[in-house]
Amino acid sequence: MGMKCAISGKKPSVGNKIRYRGKAKYLGGVGKKITGKTKRRFLPNLQRIQVQDENGTVKTIRVAVSVIRSGLVQKPVRRKAFQISKV
């Protein structure tokens, strides 16, 4: 199992880490200059959670937090709802 979301398919992407030096023009300097570029990886925020599918089976999968927040996954019910007994 690689670092990939089981629902949305999010996976690590590649970008640049840019390093600046100097004083900004609006602060009275001559401007910021780029002094270095290095490759970096942007990793998705994956969490291991239990998910209940439409059949009612519960399984553990790795899912991005954006998927959990948007409500695309159904978490299993841990216990019965509280009921007041009728006397």
Give a structural overview.
- With 87 residues, the protein is mainly beta.
- It has a domain of 58 residues: Ribosomal Protein L24e, Chain: T (Roll).
- The longest helix is centred in the C-terminal third of the chain and has 6 residues.
- The strands form 2 sheets. It has a two-stranded antiparallel ribbon.
- A hairpin with a 5-residue loop joins β3 and β4.
Question: What key phrases describe this protein's structure?
Answer:
87 residues, mainly beta, Ribosomal Protein L24e, Chain: T, two-stranded antiparallel sheet, 1 helix, 4 strands, 7% helix
> Which architecture of the domain at 13-70 per CATH?
Roll
Structural class from helices and strands? Answer: mainly beta
Q: What helical percentage do the residues reach?
A: under 10%
Tally of alpha and pi helices = 1
Query: Largest beta sheet: what is the strand line-up?
Result: 1-2
Residue fraction in strands? 35-45%
Shape, per Cα inertia axes:
elongated
Rg over alpha carbons: 23 Å
The name of the CATH topology of the domain at 13-70 is Ribosomal Protein L24e, Chain: T
CATH class of the domain at 13-70: Mainly Beta
Largest sheet entry = 2 strands, antiparallel
State the separation between the terminal residues, measured CA to CA.
Answer: 53 Å
The count of strands amounts to 4
Give the mean pLDDT. 92
Name the helix and strand elements from N-terminus to C-terminus, one letter apiece. EEEEH
**Low-confidence runs:** none
